[in-house]
């Protein structure tokens, strides 16, 4: 494995972990998210880490999933980090509900691809 491949594997695993945590925290239930500032804070923090990791992925790995909105993820990271006082929780929920399932699938495909790219047995 090259250093880039190794770091991509670590970043993809971290992204998968963030996605799993968000799912665990919300249970896919809007009311659970809306009712708890603790859940909201945990979700936003994991979105921040998820989007930060997505920015650090190599272009080669990102190119395997051209349908993913990599630039928009980066933009959302900037909002979460720099404009957190104006963060709209309705938009956060929309992202959880509409965007994260596809990203979760893409991350799983990228992980599968990276593990199948190892040296021949």
From TrEMBL:
Q: Which domain of life is it from?
A: Bacteria
> Which keywords accompany this UniProt record?
Hydrolase, Nuclease, Nucleotide-binding, Phosphoprotein, Toxin-antitoxin system
Establish whether keyword Nuclease is in the entry. yes
The protein's matches in Gene3D superfamilies, at most eight in alphabetical order, are given as: bsu32300-like
Can the keyword Phosphoprotein be found in this entry's annotation? yes
The record's comment on protein family reads:
Belongs to the HepT RNase toxin family.
Please state what the protein is called.
DUF86 domain-containing protein
Per the UniProt record, the source organism is Pseudaquabacterium terrae
